[in-house]
Amino acid sequence: MMKEKAASNAQHDLGNGETLTIKTDKKSHLFIGFGKTPAQNDVLVKEAEHQLDELINKGEICGGEIIRINGPTTLPVALVLAHKLSHRYQAVAMYDPKLSRYVIAIAHGDKYSVGELID
Asked: Which residue has the higher pLDDT, 19 or 17?
């Protein structure tokens, strides 16, 4: 059973949004969600990287002052997001539904501080 699952994960076509969706408002928000097809983190991280690269290549993720991320994700996918986005933005914030605000998780410069809450 495990081998079948691994084989099906290996055959996954990247970019079809079946396991993970990443969209942007082309300004300062990134929306992430799980697709209809469940997948393990070994597939999800590849899908996240692929979709982010597509958005970057299309000019929908350009970089700048701050990006706000909203939606459920796994820790490995969050690390892919952090790595890719921290090179392009001065600050990266993740929405915390318990606080109903965004929490600055990565900050370069002195405009934002890690742990700062923003709308």
From this structure: 19
- 119, 101 in Cβ contact below 8 A? yes
Tell me if 114 sits within 8 A of 105, measured CB to CB: yes
By CB neighbour count within 10 A (0-12 exposed, 13-18 middle, 19+ buried), where does 48 fall?
Answer: buried
Residues 17-26: what's their mean pLDDT?
Answer: 88
Name the residue among 94, 90, 34 with its Cα closest to residue 63: 90
Q: What count of Cα atoms within 13 Å lies in the side-chain half-sphere of residue 102?
A: 21
* Backbone φ/ψ region at 73: left (φ over 0), alpha (ψ -120 to 50), beta: beta
Q: Could you give the angle at the alpha carbon of 29 between the alpha carbons of 26 and 33, nearest 5°?
A: 105
- Residue 103 contacts residue 117 (beta carbons within 8 Å): yes
At 52, phi and psi to the nearest 5?
-60, -45
Q: What is the pTM of this model?
A: 0.83
Q: 30-64 pLDDT, tens per residue?
A: 999 998 899 999 999 999 999 999 999 999 999 99
